[in-house]
Amino acid sequence: MTGPLVNAAVIVVCAFAGCFFIRGVPPRFEEILKKAIGLAIIYVGIKGALDNRRTLLLIMSLVVGALIGELINIDALMTRFGGWVEKKLFTGRSGEAGKAEKTRKIVCSASGGSFSKGFVSASILFCTGSMAIVGSIQSGLRGNHELLFAKSILDGSISLIFGASMGIGVAFSAIPVLVYQGGLVLLAGAASAFLSDEIVREMSAVGSLLVAAIGFNFLEIKEIRVANLIPAMFIPCFVIALFG
Q1: Surface-to-core class of residue 146, CB atoms within 10 Å of its CB (0-12 exposed, 13-18 middle, 19+ buried)
Q2: pLDDT for 90-106, tens place per residue?
Q3: Chain centre to alpha carbon of residue 101
Q4: How far, in Å, CA of 123 to CA of 176, rounded?
Q5: Residue 66 and residue 49: Cα distance in Å, rounded?
Q6: What is the DSSP letter of 73?
Q7: What pTM, to 2 d.p., does this model score?
Q8: In terms of Cα–Cα distance, which of 148, 120, 141 is closest to 224?
Q9: 223: alpha, beta or left? (left if phi > 0; alpha if psi -120 to 50)
Q10: Helices (DSSP H) in 73-173: which residue ranges?
Q11: Distance CA 9, CA 74 (A)
C-alpha cells in the first residue's frame, strides 16, 4: 500500500497549498493554466488510448459502460457525497453555524469553485487512466511503486492548480484515490494469474479516453459526465475473461 498512500498524501498537501497559499493568483493566470493542463490531459488520454488493439471492444465498453453508469448515475452520487462532506465539514454546532458558513464562503470564494465540483473532477481525473490502473497492478503484483510515485508528482502538480481554482474539495479526492488504488493493489495480489497483459492494456485504453474527456471539460468545450463512464473501464476485463 506504499504507492497509494504516498499518492493520496501528495494530493492532500498540494491541494491545501493551492487552496490557502496560491489563491491570490490573478484569474487570467488560473484560466490559462487550466487550459494548458486541459490540453496536456487530452494529449495524455489520447496517447494512452492508442495502445488499444481491440477497437470494437473499446467502443462496446464505452457504450455499455455509459448505459450502466447513467442507470446508476454515478456522477449524481459523487456530487451528493461531495455535498454531504462539505455540509459536515463546514456546518458548525450551536453558536458556531455563522462562523462555519463564513469559513466555507471564504474558502470557496478564494478558490473560485465549489466543493463538489472540485471533489468530483479531481477524483475522476486521479482515479482513471493507465497510470492508476497499471501502477496499482505493478505495485500489487511486483511490489514496484515507481509508476505510482511518478503519478504522485503529476497529481500533486494538478492538485496545486485545482486547489487554487476549485477549492478544498480537491483535497478530499485523496479518499477515493486511496480506496480505488488500494483496492486495485490488493486485487492484483489476489488475482495475479487472472490479470493478463491484454486485459490491463484494454482497461487502460478505455480509462485513458475518460482522461481525455476530463481534458475537454477543462477546455469548456462540452460538459461530459465522465463519472457515468467509469464502468466502461471494467467491461474489457469481463469480455476478455469470458470470450478470450
Answers
A1: exposed
A2: 554 444 444 444 444 44
A3: 27
A4: 6
A5: 17
A6: T
A7: 0.69
A8: 120
A9: beta
A10: 74-90, 97-111, 115-127, 130-142, 146-166
A11: 25
